[in-house]
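# step 3/5: fold
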Amino acid sequence: QVQLVESGGGLVQPGGSLRLSCAASGRIFRIESMGWYRQAPGKQRELVAAITSGGTTTYTDAVKGRFTISRDNAKNTIYLQMDSLKPEDTAVYYCNRNRSPLWPWGQGTQVTVSA
């Protein structure tokens, strides 16, 4: 069973930056396309960025040009560099693979963008 542990969230002012990390157990990680998801209060969880096992990346329009997803297969870890943060980026951020069935969700990491 894969376990996911997200970290790196916090409170940041608009225009600021954060770098999120997601550590996954299990060797299967390196062959999977992975994604960062977020869930804002009262909204459904959404996929914001994804990266294939070969490093190809995709982003939802709302974060394109501001967020960068990357991975380190040797460390079983993916990252999300978030720049030019906006209040609407406030959410709990999760990682998971980018296909069904999803793995059990981790606890997520809270990102709050506020002055």
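# step 4/5: annotate
The beta strands are 4-7, 10-12, 18-24, 34-39, 46-51, 57-59, 67-72, 77-82, 91-97, 109-113.
# step 5/5: archive (pending)
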